Amino acid sequence: MSNFFWKDEDFDVFQIDGLENRMTALIKNVRPKFEELGKQYSLYFSSALGDEYFPHVAKHARRSVNPPKDSWVAFAPYKRGYKALPHFQIGLWGSHLFIIVAVIYEAPDKVAIAERLLKKKSLFKKLPADFIVSGDHMKPEATPLKQAKGDELEQLLVRLRDVKKGEFLVGRHMAREEVVKLTENEFFKLAEETFEQLLPIYKTMINRK
């Protein structure tokens, strides 16, 4: 039995035609891994932050025609949902894996979150240069942080503050070709290191020192 956590077939799920066929493969191949990660990292966040954190594995239940282009497990300190809160995610697109912290448009506290991040932009200088930022969780594309540390980072945060549909994501993208070479232990270590690096950003989002 291989000790690699992610496999090519996990990413290939997103090439399968048709909602039913893609969901069948997603539920069989990928969802058990998200559930495993959910158990592991909800405990990690609960320990690191002192509140109980809950995993939320994407179910894609509202879809009736279009198959999902990505999938994920999210973490937040609320059992019934995560979209209204800043939250962490581990997820897959067909092209890459992402490990991020995000504020999406459903968050009612977006304005205050953006203002806190704008005041503490220096935190982003402490993140690895290969991290990414994005203003749209529905798109796979993102900007490397080393390119965005000037005007673009500020523009994304201002948009989060001023635009109703504004969003902000920061974290790590990793090409599938690299991800499938990681052993289970290597992947868990990478995920935990990424979350540790993102914790200061998250604490600023939730206004905790």
Give an account of the 3D structure.
Strand 5 (132-134) and strand 6 (143-144) form a beta hairpin. The mean pLDDT is 95. The protein is of the alpha+beta class. The protein has helices at 8-12, 19-49, 110-119, 145-148, 151-162, 176-179, 184-205; strands at 54-57, 70-76, 87-93, 96-103, 132-134, 143-144, 168-175. Strands 1-2-3-4-7-5-6 form a seven-stranded antiparallel sheet.
Strand runs, count: 7
Beta content comes to 15-25%
**Mean pLDDT figure:** 95
N-end to C-end Cα span: 44 Å
**What is the molecular shape?**
globular
Largest beta sheet: what is the strand line-up? 1-2-3-4-7-5-6
Helix residue percentage: 40-55%
Cα Rg: 17 Å
Structural class designation: alpha+beta
Q: Could you give a short account of the major beta sheet?
A: 7 strands, antiparallel
CATH homologous group name = Protein of unknown function DUF1054
Count helical runs. Answer: 7
CATH C-level name: Alpha Beta
- SSE order, as H and E? HHEEEEHEEHHEHH
Low-pLDDT stretches are: none
